[in-house]
Amino acid sequence: MNRYAVVVLASLLAAAGTPVNADEQLLSIDAQGDVRPGDWAYRALADLGQQNGCRAAMALTPGAAIAPQPQLNRFEAAALLQSCLERVQRPTDAMRRLMAQFADELEQLKGRQQQVSQQIDSLSAQTFSATTRLSIESIWVAGGNSYGGNAINTATNSYSIAVNGTDINKPLPNSISFNYDLRLNLSTSWTGKDLLYTRLRSGNFFPSSGFGNYPDLNMAILDAAFGIGPSVRIDRLYYRFPIGNSLSVMVGPRLRNTEILGFRPQAYDGILDFFTLAGAPTVYNKTNGAGAGFSWKQPVPRGKPYWIGAVSYVARFGDNGDPALGGLFNSNSGNNVNLQLGGRGDNWALAAGYRYGTCFTDSRSGTALVMDPGTLYCWDFRRGNDASSHSISLGGYWQPRNSGWLPAISLGWGYSHWNQSAELISDPRDSAIVSATQSWAAMLQWNNIAGSGNAAGLAVGQGTMATALRTGATPADGNLAMEAWYRLRVSDAISVTPAVFYLANPLGQVLAGQGQYLNNLGLLIQTRFVF
Description:
Layout: H1 3-15, H2 22-27, H3 40-52, H4 55-58, H5 74-85, H6 93-101, H7 103-125, E1 132-148, E2 152-153, E3 158-163, E4 166-171, E5 177-188, E6 195-203, E7 229-243, E8 247-256, E9 288-297, E10 306-315, E11 335-344, E12 348-357, H8 368-371, E13 387-398, E14 408-420, E15 434-447, E16 455-469, E17 480-489, E18 494-504, H9 509-512, E19 519-530
Antiparallel strand pairs: 1-5, 1-19, 2-3, 3-4, 5-6, 6-7, 7-8, 8-9, 9-10, 10-11, 11-12, 12-13, 13-14, 14-15, 15-16, 16-17, 17-18, 18-19
């Protein structure tokens, strides 16, 4: 840093009230100056420093701890004068003369000071609060699906579903695709214990990707699948704060019912969305909407097992002001009331869950009979239809204390009873609407396998399937889902996960009722960047 910059910096900091060791700053000046010891301006600056306690100018006083006394150029002298002006309480003739002598230099320094101040303000406006943190996840998926079974028309690369006696052709999404899911997580805390959470999300999986073909082949949807294009959406927006040492409250216009529950009873990182739902898609259905909830954790000494409970309310259409289409706490809100009670230890957990749902709430993952005509429709097909569901779940996991060849084991099961006051649609798939469903999953995960940070997973289960119909008939809605994957940790920020999954009869009775079947084999490579 040159001598001019040093002195200007000293003057700016002094003007801002920041103490600066000007003696040391001036000691580094060795160039020839225009104001020399013995000049009137030099003596006047020194006197000004003594009279007003201006440390920078006091360094010019004869006998000060600088030997020999420094010479100053005009800008250095003007900077010292400027640093003293705010301390002057009574103007003197000498001060006025100094200001007149260095008027041009003072004007230039003032302009530079304003410019620096504007730059600082601009930079400050571009920074986050000291309590706000940004983390980013970028997930890329490249892969494709292959289909087999007698339901496939190879000439048209499609399968058909009978609706009201008419075959509707559905194209098979079996090309190789390359998709993304981008998540920007903003976390703000004012007390260190509260959290304002905002997630911005973008993706391009729906509806044409083979890993996001909703609703018929929904069992092939990935956990990372999101979005219909390059637009960015508000995916989460909620505030969480503690009450005492045991209670935590969460409220917001955009929150997910499963996040309020405290934990999901599984120790498994699923590739398919189904294998992230603890075997119970009707309870852990990941509904987003407006709502609130609280969780309670038993206060115990660190390392001891504890009880944890939670309750939440989330309205899928809570942002709609028309009571016929949404709002809070009415029959058209898409209400989800979740409860969970469980216990946790250092390497295990058990939990029982419950969810009450109204119109347009459904299972997160399951056969076409459950996901499409089985959904709890109300106003679209039969006004006044009173529809609701009661779902329960049991789940838990155990994991070894030391990672190795012994895997973490996760098991989950779900059951749901559906009530609807009227037949909704005349459809062979709906010959007797669903009245009960079940699902289950068994999952294994090996951590730090073949290298620190690497992991492998293997899972099998049945997505939500109809087990009872309103007529009392037994549905042929069985299905089977399997997946296997290996996650390679490239670095702290990058991981690569090759994966394979197989779905047997994912459409369930929709095809089985016609004596047909369709199977789905998926291969993919998922790359995750975190920064």
